[in-house]
């Protein structure tokens, strides 16, 4: 119900009361005292209700306001109406908060809401089970004061939360956690912690299985190769039919041996990445050695290999892994570029990035295949890969190496016009070598 109070209506009512009291006082010959008494009565009445209102607002626990008629009744009714609306809004807000908390408690992950200064605002029960953080007991505490893992401190220091942070649970050393930070609202941060212990164990089992199987295959392959080479070395011992069969066996053993070798490299890259330490790498010298080695691979197809290297630019990393990644890109270009094609190798700094690129004018790659090139055993053309001896593991090795070095692989290719594979190293990896002249050369 709407109620409107105007100055005019108040003035008219007050005037009517005073006129009535003055008229009655005039009849009895006491007009002025009657006006004073009426005015005093009005003041007492208003102050009485004013004190009742103050007492109700500050002392009374009753929800319903005092009862009254007239203008004060309207005021009480308006206040009660506002209280009911506020209570309904509070109920709706509490229901939303309850639903939010029920949803957050139903999450399989530990969830924490942080302020922009990393102080804890709210957390679910799984945050206590996985991170040891209690809510509301730890309300207002900084998250880095409760999670003191060095890797988490470094993660917060970088301020880049695109990738997750992996750490061991402070509550249970057998739990491996994956932490992610993301913006939540305008001035808050949501932290999610997921238990990936099972996935981590399965990944370790897979890596151990691949490594063990690869090692076990190495010995029988060596024995088979030895006997095949011994038979092939015996002059006039076999007729041409059997000689061709053993040549085929030898080529397949070689292919299998190469596959096992790449599996071993991949296992070593996955398992030992956290053990090895980063050292300064003279990229110009490393790339030059790889190009010299490529001459032997290039004897049959006679590619024209050109290179341009910034001889003053190096990086910090794991030497064996970087060498493996760069060698895979160069050998792929040689394997999949037609005879007498062109291959260009480039090492340079562009802005705050160091870029190693291998460009060829080969057949190119379809757009739908580019995103899958780094998958294990994925081949764009299975028949062509068999002809070139490809195993489908080269770019998978490159992917893992770059992950360890916070680098990125960018592939640009057009069918029929060639491909360019580029590795982008972050500026934090770059180092400056002693002043030398940039290397440029062509190798026919």
Topology:
Layout (H helix, E strand, L loop, with lengths): L6 H21 L3 H28 L11 H37 L3 E6 L4 E4 L1 H7 L11 H4 L3 H9 L6 E4 L7 E9 L3 E8 L1 H36 L7 H32 L7 E3 L1 H15 L6 E6 L3 E5 L1 H18 L5 E9 L2 E8 L6 H4 L11 H7 L5 H11 L3 E7 L3 E8 L4 E3 L6 E5 L1
Parallel strand pairs: 7-9
Antiparallel strand pairs: 1-2, 1-5, 3-4, 4-5, 6-8, 7-14, 8-13, 9-10, 10-12, 11-12
Organism: Thalassomonas viridans
Enzyme class: transferase
Keywords: ATP-binding, Cell membrane, Kinase, Membrane, Nucleotide-binding, Phosphoprotein, Transferase, Transmembrane, Transmembrane helix, Transport, Two-component regulatory system
Structure explained in plain terms:
The protein has 444 residues and is an alpha+beta fold. Helices cover 52% and strands 19% of the residues. Strands 11-12-10-9-7-14 form a 6-stranded mixed β-sheet, covered by helices on one side. Helix 7 (197-232) packs antiparallel against helix 8 and helix 9 (283-297) runs parallel beside helix 10 (319-336).
Helical stretch tally: 13
What value does the average pLDDT take?
A: 81
Broad shape: elongated
Q: What is the terminal-to-terminal distance?
A: 95 Å
Which structural class is indicated by helix and strand composition?
Answer: alpha+beta
Strand/helix succession:
HHHEEHHHEEEHHEHEEHEEHHHEEEE
Biggest β-sheet: count, sense, barrel?
6 strands, mixed
Rg over CA atoms, rounded to whole Å, is 41 Å
Strand order of the largest sheet: 11-12-10-9-7-14
Fraction in beta strands: 15-25%
Strand segment count: 14
Low-confidence stretches: none
């Amino acid at each position: 119900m709407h109620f409107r109070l105007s100055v005019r209506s108040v003035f008219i009512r007050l005037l009517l009361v005073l006129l009535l009291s003055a008229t009655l006082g005039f009849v009895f010959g006491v007009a002025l005292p009657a006006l004073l008494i009426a005015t005093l009565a009005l003041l007492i009445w208003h102050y009485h209700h004013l004190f009742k209102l103050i007492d109700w607002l500050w002392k009374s626990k009753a929800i319903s306001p005092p009862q009254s008629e007239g203008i004060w009744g309207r005021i009480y009714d308006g206040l009660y109406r506002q209280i009911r609306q506020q209570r309904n809004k509070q109920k709706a807000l509490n229901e939303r908060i309850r639903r939010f908390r029920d949803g957050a408690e139903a999450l399989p992950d530990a969830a924490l809401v942080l302020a922009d200064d990393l102080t804890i605002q709210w957390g679910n029960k799984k945050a206590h089970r996985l991170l040891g953080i209690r809510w509301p007991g730890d309300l207002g505490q900084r998250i880095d004061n409760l999670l003191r893992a060095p890797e988490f401190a470094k993660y917060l220091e970088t301020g880049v939360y695109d990738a997750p942070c992996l750490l061991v649970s402070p509550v249970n050393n057998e739990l491996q956690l994956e932490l992610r930070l993301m913006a939540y609202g305008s001035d808050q941060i949501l932290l999610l912690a997921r238990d990936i212990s099972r996935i981590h164990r399965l990944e370790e089992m897979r890596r151990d299985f691949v490594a063990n199987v690869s090692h076990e295959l190495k010995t029988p392959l060596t024995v088979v190769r030895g006997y095949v080479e011994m038979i092939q070395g015996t002059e006039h011992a076999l007729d041409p039919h059997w000689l061709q069969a053993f040549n085929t066996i030898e080529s397949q053993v070689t292919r299998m041996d190469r596959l096992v070798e790449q599996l071993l490299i991949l296992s070593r890259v996955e398992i030992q990445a956290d053990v090895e330490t980063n050292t300064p790498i003279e990229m110009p010298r490393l790339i030059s050695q790889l190009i010299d080695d490529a001459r032997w691979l290039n004897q049959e197809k006679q590619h024209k290999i050109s290179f341009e290297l910034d001889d003053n630019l190096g990086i910090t990393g794991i030497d064996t892994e970087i060498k493996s990644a760069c060698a895979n890109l160069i050998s792929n270009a040689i394997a999949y570029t037609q005879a007498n094609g062109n291959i260009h190798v480039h090492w340079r700094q562009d802005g705050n990035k160091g870029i190693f690129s291998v460009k060829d004018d080969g057949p190119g790659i379809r757009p739908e295949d580019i995103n899958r090139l780094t998958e294990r055993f994925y081949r764009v053309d299975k028949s062509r890969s068999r002809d070139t001896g490809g195993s489908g593991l080269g770019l998978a090795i490159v992917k893992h190496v770059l992950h360890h070095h916070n680098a990125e692989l960018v592939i640009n290719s057009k069918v029929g016009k060639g491909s360019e594979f580029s590795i982008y190293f972050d500026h934090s990896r770059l180092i400056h070598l002693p002043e030398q002249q940039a290397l440029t050369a062509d190798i026919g």
